[in-house]
Design brief:
- The chain is mostly helical.
- The protein contains six helices and no strands.
- It starts with 10 loop residues before the first helix and ends with a helix.
- The protein has helices at 11-33, 43-51, 56-59, 62-83, 89-101, 106-124.
- The longest helix has 23 residues, at 11-33.
- Helix 2 (43-51) packs across helix 4 (62-83) and helix 5 (89-101) runs antiparallel to helix 6 (106-124).
Length: 126
């Protein structure tokens, strides 16, 4: 006796499969993305720094502080581009993951990567 299986395809079923495929694809691409210097949105952290300025008149208005912060973060990104190849893939993945979990900052990312690299080098010299 032959068994016949019918597959019913609905728009909802296709959408669910497509969404699941997109999630799996993005997870599969995560390690590859860790191989490039990430593009972080530093605006939220810089706005927070500008708002927390102890005395805005000493350094200028909050807009000036914000612009200075963004400029500093861009300089840190340029530094990171130059040093990117000195960090191992696992160091990159771990530190990028920690940055994506909180407020993004190239300054914090560079600090994380430099500490991880120093720890690796210290362990290798033992």
């Amino acid at each position: 006796m032959k068994r016949v299986f019918a597959v019913v395809v609905t728009a909802q079923g296709v959408a669910a499969v497509s969404a699941a495929a997109a999630v799996l694809l993005s997870l599969a691409m995560w390690p590859a993305q860790a191989q490039d210097v990430p593009d972080l949105n530093v605006d939220p952290v810089c706005r927070g720094i500008a708002q927390q300025a102890a005395n805005p008149t000493e350094k200028g208005d909050p807009d000036l502080t914000f612009r200075q912060c963004v400029k500093s973060e861009q300089a840190m990104r340029e530094k990171l581009v130059g040093e990117w190849s000195t960090f191992s893939p696992s160091e990159r993945t771990n530190c990028i993951g920690s940055e994506m979990a909180g407020m993004a900052s190239y300054t914090d990312l560079v600090s994380c990567l430099e500490m991880a690299r120093s720890a690796r080098q210290l362990n290798q010299s033992k």
